[in-house]
Write a sequence for this structure.
């Protein structure tokens, strides 16, 4: 068995790794939506925005929403915020 001089990885394994990277590079990226608001994340299992807050040292899930704006409103309501801070 021969080894790559730089990485000390067997040549056969290195070839498999390179093929895996090549296949991955050919697949189109599926962009996962991301929110700029902490506590709001995309739940890909249901294709909705999930809202979580911390209350009394525990994480609480508020709900899942189709629109990010609805998720933000739900988080603001759960935290008792009515005014938008700039």
């Amino acid at each position: 068995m021969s080894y790559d001089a730089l990485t000390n990885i067997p040549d056969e394994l290195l070839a498999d790794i390179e093929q895996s990277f090549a296949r991955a590079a050919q697949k189109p990226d599926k962009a996962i939506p991301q929110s700029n608001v902490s506590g709001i994340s995309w739940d890909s299992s249901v294709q909705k925005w999930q809202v979580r807050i911390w209350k009394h040292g525990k994480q609480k899930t508020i709900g899942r929403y189709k629109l990010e704006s609805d998720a933000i409103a739900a988080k603001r309501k759960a935290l008792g915020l009515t005014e938008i801070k700039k």
Summary: Residues 41 and 50 are 5 Å apart (CA to CA). The chain has two domains: 1-30, 40-79.
